[in-house]
Amino acid sequence: MTTMSETDADTGSDVEADTDELARRAERAALRLANADEATRNEALRSIADAIRDREAEILEANAVDVEEAEAMLADGEYTQALVDRLKLDEAKIEDIASMVEAVAEQDDPLGETLAARELDEDLELYRVAVPIGVVATVFESRPDALVQIAALALKSGNAVVLKGGSEASESNRILHEAIVEATADLPDGWAALVEAHEEVDRLLELDDRVDLVMPRGSSEFVSYIQANTQIPVLGHTEGICHVYVDADADLSMAEDVAFDAKVQYPAVCNAVETLLVHESVADAVLPDLVARYEAAGVELRGDERTREVVDVGPATDDDWDTEYGDLELSIKVVDDAYDAIEHVNEHGSKHTESILTEDAETAEAFMTGVDAASVFHNASTRFADGYRYGLGAEVGISTGKIHARGPVGLDGLTTYKYYLEGDGHLVASYSGEDALPFTHRDLDGAEWTPGGR
After folding, report:
1. For the chain, what percentages of helix, strand and coil (3-state, to nearest 5) are there?
2. Model pLDDT for residues 169-222, shown as the tens digit of each residue
3. C-beta separation of 183 from 48 below 8 A
4. Does a structural domain hold residue 265?
5. In what order do the strands lie in the sheet with 114-121?
6. Of 53, 52, 32, whose CA–CA distance to 41 is shortest?
């Protein structure tokens, strides 16, 4: 089993050499895994799901150790309740994790798909075909289920993966990783590696010749640190400073339900709403009942001056508009109109998920096209921004950038492509000079690449 720990560093082992070897094994595994057929990858995924169910008691026992330590840190003020909530596993969550792995197995194979085909000349055909990225390194937060999600998606997409979870979930991550590795013993050794020391991560960031993609999940500062310390492409998952805007033409009953769900259903996650924006013309109608409902659910509320003229809540500061609470806390602002809401979102949002509640199609269009975010919803809770809910099986994270992949990153986000050219002794010289042959450059709609030509 490929695992490195902080204990290794403390006992004087050569972290740099060990990390280099781990990366070499991952690179070799990635090259072999890319050639594993879909049936092999799906069977391995089903074995992982079975192993997680079989080892439920061990997983919960390990998780209880993490939770006990986290609750002690919570009591000392070093951890938040949101972190502890994300950390906890129970029997239902174990089953959800196993079912998620099986859902990934049921997804269409992302590899080998012909993305484009073109005839360059007779019997000279060019194909663009989906292939794995290679070695993916990911650093993620306290949720132990994230380790399984990322590993499952990496396996289905033919990638090797190096996993670094938060120290607060170390016991949970170790047992889950052990279950994954033992369940996939027939796959190339080193396809799923677990590291635990910060020194190992720093060394991985230097290995741009072996690691093909880094996916950090955390704060903007953390993602910026990763980007500044590596030449490896970075697909960042940063904060979720999400907004719900209640427009003048909203169905107020529906708006109240959606705004409540977006905050209260699960406040610890990145797609929970942090700021509620309300059109000035409906503030008196919607805020009193909605605030009462929030307060009954234990939500700590803050508002701007116009909000506090309508309801009795604490004052919001400038910092509140830029804060991801990850807890039962919410800021409220009354805005002039949809364009004022758009301006606020684009200034303070994290480009994650935004939602407008309105019955006016033109206003919805203006908001949805005017807001700069990976996901923009109309009359729906921000909590729908999730790989499983999008039908992706699972997600490795939600990308708030714009390059390569955006929003919930599933299997497609873990693939790139190759060009395959099928010829019959064709020479470039034939297409050069005075008697050069012309290219046909004819698209081959529906053509699929197969070795040796279609």
Report:
1. 45, 20, 35
2. 999 999 999 999 999 999 999 999 999 988 999 999 999 999 999 988 777 778
3. yes
4. yes
5. 415-422, 124-132, 114-121, 442-443
6. 32
pLDDT, greater one: 389 or 134: 134
CATH number for the domain spanning 92: value is 3.40.605.10
Answer left, alpha or beta for residue 446, where phi above 0 means left and psi between -120 and 50 means alpha: left
Residue 220 half-sphere exposure toward CB, CA atoms < 13 A = 13
Amino acid 47 reads: S
Model pTM score: 0.78
Q: Are 126 and 381 in contact (CB under 8 A)?
A: no
- What CA–CA distance (Å, rounded) separates 308 from 291? 11
Please, which residues have CB within 8 angstroms of residue 453's CB and are 6 or more apart in sequence? 123, 125, 422
Is the same domain home to 285 and 150?
no
The first and second tokens of residue 133, run together, are 């990225």
Residue 388 corresponds to which tokens in the numbers above? 């499983």
Tokens of 87: 């950390």
Residue 11 has a pLDDT of 44
Residue 393, pLDDT score: 66
Torsions phi, psi for 336 (to 5 deg)? -70, -40
Question: By the 8 A CB rule, do 100 and 393 touch?
Answer: yes
Closest residue by Cα to residue 190 from 15, 18, 5, 394? 18
- Residue 280 sits in which domain range? 240-386
Domain count, the chain: 2
At residue 245, what are phi and psi to the nearest 5 degrees? -110, 120
